[in-house]
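I hope you will forgive my troubling you with a question about protein structure. The record follows directly beneath this note:
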Amino acid sequence: MTATDSGLEPLDPAYVADVLSRPPFIQIPGVCNVRDLGSYPTASPDVVTKAGYAYRSAELSSITEEGGYLSLFDICKLIPIQGARKMISLGIFTVFDLRSDPEMMKYSSPIPTIEGVEIVPTPVFKSEDYSPEKLAKRFELYATGTTEAFMILYSQILEHGGPAFGAILRHVRDKPNSPFIFHCTAGKDRTGIIAAILLKLAGVDNHFISQDYSLTRVGREPDREKVLGRLLKEPLFAANSEAAMRMLTSRYETMRAFFNLLEEKYGGVETYVKTYAELTDEDLKTIRSNLVVSTKSRI
């Protein structure tokens, strides 16, 4: 990507393939925009975020489309061969789904069934937040593509997302050796915010977190046409594909603005999670410890 990249035009396929082949991206067949939140430097010398533990992605609904099915034990127990096998090989047995039921129904993207994997519904928004009126207002904000509009939307996510984010944070607190993945639909906004919260709690600098957020620009490219196809069915976007693309932008400066919002309106990440996710200082100490490792221990 270049400094003048608008985020609206398709990216060069060779460039996308190259970036997706390298960390932090992880390939799980049928799942878009997957990446590992590990190996980021923290404020503590020789301490980085733990690799192979916390993963983010877009929806998992299409994981069953890759490679057919494999029978386990009997004909009634089926799992998709490639996608689920890869996920299980990574040790991921817990999935946090940040989507709401109306959203899944709207896009015909149900929660998949994967044998041995617990999929935890953790919706950020309630079903009533998907009324035509509320949805239209959110789409109008997204369509502007401005940082100011995104901050209104991200404040809504923070206001509603405490219980969902708390479930993920408690997993980190209680299960430091159990890798997990969390996702929304595109893996950009709700997913981007809880990813930022996790990395911020771990002591990662805002610069690196903002870079991670901006990687969704590349990570979503394989699903570009599918996502656009969905959006163009909405009246607001039907005659304005550029507005639809503005909804999908994930600019570095947007995440930098989010950190200002988090600090100025919510008192910073620790105050936010203590207030909205009902966590304690002791919880945060444990969560921080469970998210990081010493690079010296690898030698």
